[in-house]
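Reopening: N-acetyltransferase still failing for me.
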Amino acid sequence: MLPSSIQIVPLHPLDFAEFMDYLDDHLSDNGKDGTAYFQPSPQGQHAFSPQRAAAFRGALDVPLSQHGWRRAWVARNATGQIVGHVDLRSHTERWSAERCLLGMGVDRAHRKIGLGAALIEHVELWAKQETAVGWIDLQVLSNNTPAIRLYLRSGFKITGEVRDMFKVDNQYFSYTDMTKYLYANQH
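Support: Ran it again with your exact input. Result attached.
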């Protein structure tokens, strides 16, 4: 059970610079000190580019009825520090409005306390209440077994794998595709 001192709240536009600082720090763990690679990028290359940050920020303002939307939430501890995040965004392909993509991460000091599961549960409830989305998809590096275990426990199913999708730091990484139907209990 998630500690009551941690609250999941929508990412406010005024907090976007703080969020980018959190993401840069979070991404610095990618493949470092026994942490699984969770992004297909080399160690030490962890800053969001200005273009990528602008695209993320801009998508937060796109109405849900339009292609290209994104919504994000942050988990804050008792002192207000961002300790996790989750986002949902429309697929890049048009005509896929009933599906969206999940992205998420948890700060190194707040893993294994149920925060990842709470973030997923939060966005699933939001998607059911606020959108026409029926499916949440995600892609995860296949070596990231802690994340895959979390997604499986949360009801996601593996739908495929692209072998050796990336070559990063002279290592090959496969990409696992996963999905969850939000209304499975109604069939």
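The chain has one domain: 7-186. If you still see a failure, please send the error message rather than a screenshot.
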